[in-house]
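lol ok so funny story. i was supposed to be doing the assay writeup but got distracted and ended up predicting the structure for this chain instead. priorities right. anyway since i did it might as well share w the group, maybe its usefull for someone
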Amino acid sequence: MSIPAPPPTLRDVTRLWWLIALFGVVVAGVGIFFVVSPHETLSTFTVIAGIFLLVDGVIALLASIFGRGEGRGLAAIIGLVSVLAGLVLIKRPFDTLVVFTLILGLWFVIAGIARAVEAFSEREGRGGNLAVGALDLIAGIVILAWPDLSLSTFAVILGIVLILRGILLIAAGWQLRGVDRALR
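and the output, tada:
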């Protein structure tokens, strides 16, 4: 008979502050690439966006497994949707901007709504979740409302959203670092 593993403590979670901050730096870097190089090919943007969604999904799934509280189910939904969308974009880079735009626009709307709901169900990190949820929802609505935008315009919009998201992730990582130091 095996003894079940103890649930993760807050200290186990805060120890990973650097991972969230590092992901924020990478996300902001991808956003800067999109803004600075808006004339890259559609397949390049599709694969990069797919990798971003895949990593974002894995992080959300890990949060749903190791997190606490009622928001774990929503984190799992965000993770699954992100992983699926990321795999679709990586495995099948689309030749049409409309399909790419629809996939990312829908992902932003679903993720934004889920994060906003999660923010209201959890007190911890409410401000950060609301900020990311609002950013995702607004980005999704803008992208879906403007289906005939050019690749350059889409790249700049996506780049700005990713830069802002990266900044929010870096701030969240830094806050976790402070909590981690206080728990020592």
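The mean pLDDT is 84. The CA atoms of residues 57 and 79 lie 4 Å apart.
back to the writeup now i swear
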